[in-house]
Amino acid sequence: MDEFDAYRYELRTEMFKALANPMRLRMLERLRDRPWCVCELAASVGVDKSVASKHLSQLKAAGLVDDERRGTLVEYRLVAPCVLDMAECAERAILAERRRRLEVLEAGREGGEAP
Amino acid sequence: MDEFDAYRYELRTEMFKALANPMRLRMLERLRDRPWCVCELAASVGVDKSVASKHLSQLKAAGLVDDERRGTLVEYRLVAPCVLDMAECAERAILAERRRRLEVLEAGREGGEAP
DNA sequence: TCTGATGTTGCAATGTTTAGAAACATTTGT
DNA sequence: ACAAATGTTTCTAAACATTGCAACATCAGA
Q1: Which of A54, B43, B53, B61 is the most buried (most CB within 10 A)?
Q2: What does pTM read for this prediction?
Q3: What SS3 class is residue B110?
Q4: How confident is the prediction along chain B (115 residues), in pLDDT tens digits per residue?
């Protein structure tokens, strides 16, 4: 089962690598409501179409989006919207933790660690 | 609201960057059940302690783990176990999508796209 | 078949991430 | 104060990622 385990780690790593870029996160957010073509996305996030195309194929390789040709356009759609929800959820958890840490710091500064 | 938006994208990107590495994913899995110290983790995943320490401080900066000194050891604990669950969930979604794509390919090959 | 609109790929320059070795820092127990 | 155990930081080289431009590929319509 060790080889399968390694495969799973690779798969997850690919997925997170695909998500680990602000440009790609912006594109994914645009795709939440409807499919967009490459040129729309490129214009929307402000990069060359070639850059947008490369980001999108990375997202596709990770299995996060899918594409379909419509005439001269290529439309990309979100495969698993749950991935974006999950991002929000994790973000909330992390922000809550940061807030907690700050409070602990504040309390320590004011109270002065009673014995 | 645009500045806050940019901040959120940065935050998420940091989180996903922290998750986008097999070594760090392995360490996080170890932390699922109990806190581990740096030397245990380093031995468990097979890297130098300096490497393990760097990975762990990256995870900490992203808000995914927290640390506490216990004598000469430093123990790291998982802050938001939901992040690991989320990884599993996303993995399932993506694997399901890949399976679907394969089936579409197979069907296309056998059936021959009826008009 | 030619032309215009989209997309994708190859390339080179630039920036980022990673690993490991060595030096440094912190804590405990003597 | 010292020595042993554990963590962190610094440095370097190698690997990898990102960008934009130019060249190429694909499709629709005249």
Answers
A1: B53
A2: 0.85
A3: helix
A4: 566 777 778 888 999 999 999 999 999 999 999 999 999 999 999 999 999 999 999 999 998 999 999 999 999 999 888 888 877 877 887 788 778 777 776 765 554 443 3
CA distance A22 to B49: 31
**Which residues are bridge partners to B78 per DSSP?**
B65
CA distance B34 to B30: 8
Dist CA B70 CA B106 (whole Å): 57
- Rounded CA gap, B88 and A8, in Å? 10
Helices (H) and strands (E) in chain B, counts: 5, 3
Residues A93 and A86: beta-carbon distance below 8 Å: no
Q: How far apart are CA A5 and CA A1, in angstroms?
A: 6
Q: How far is the CA of B101 from the C1' of C5 (A)?
A: 29
Distance CA B8, CA B16 (A): 12
A44 touches strand C (CB under 7 A): no
